[in-house]
Amino acid sequence: MHKLLINKLLMPLLMTAAAGSALLAPAAFAQAPNSAVGLWKNIDDHSGKPKALIRITEANGVLSGKIEKLLRDPSEDQNPKCVKCEGDLKDQPILGMTIITGMQKDGSEYNGGKILDPDNGKVYKSKMTLQENGQKLDVRGYIGVPMLGRTQTWLRQE
């Protein structure tokens, strides 16, 4: 009898809580991420083809990005080295390489960072802007001023 009374009282509360959670869950997923932190697929701005998956992380308000996976044709070298890089990165594997450093939130953009292009070994100033409710990230590498550069659009993977 005692068990039946508890079930009668608790069951409506549990059902209400479950229904409320079910209603709130889609809203949480529908909200756009307001951070560039996550896994991104970069799309080559010349060929239009995906090149790599880059994981952007944050430590003390500073973003960095590391190549997590290369998206290469099976006939290509699957573990290429950065032969055109200079310094400590010279001839190091591109897979696992940190290519974004020093990026910080500045209003609706990320600025103050640098990005390495492993294809040519050059390091550029960089800025990033989230687009389409955080599902796309415009990544601009430039020399001097942002007008003198190029932009890739990266697609959020998670």
UniProtKB/TrEMBL annotation:
Entry keyword Translocase: no
Keyword set, alphabetical order: Signal
Boundaries of every DUF2147 domain copy: 38-156
Keyword match Signal: yes
Signal peptide: 1-30
A Pfam short name: DUF2147
Taxonomic superkingdom: Bacteria
Entries under Gene3D superfamilies matching the protein: 2.40.128.520
Protein's recorded name: DUF2147 domain-containing protein
Protein species of origin: Collimonas arenae
